[in-house]
Automatic annotation (TrEMBL):
This is MAPEG family protein. Signal peptide: none annotated. Coiled coil: none annotated. InterPro entries: MAPEG-like_dom_sf, Membr-assoc_MAPEG. It comes from the Bacteria.
Amino acid sequence: MSLAAILLPMFLQVALTFALLFWMIILRLRAIRKGDVHPEVAASRQADWPPYVQQVSNAFHNAMEMPTLFYVVVLLGFMTKTLDTTVYVLMWMFTLSRIGHTAIHVTSNRLAHRTPMFLLGAVALALMWVLIAGRILVFQTN
């Protein structure tokens, strides 16, 4: 498998995070320009953003949480040559679940729909860590 194919799920997760970041910035600037939030208040962490801004902001902050563990496990697996088809499938499960989770988060934001996507990603990520850590600890003890 090529390096690009191995890292594609990670690159998509990074692209999703940047898309949310820039969308959040645009919405925040729009809210400030419309007078929904005063610039001085926006500069503090206490800004009371309109719901449409807060929803995207929450999705962005969420994209900074679990995915950090994803980036680490992918790079760790790559560096230690412990990635295989199983981990690759789990990488795609995680990335696609995060895309689905984000799509729900920024649209209907229904917990009944969002939670299964979150759990799918969490389980995929936990399994990646178990597999990679297990292979390193059991098979690569030098």
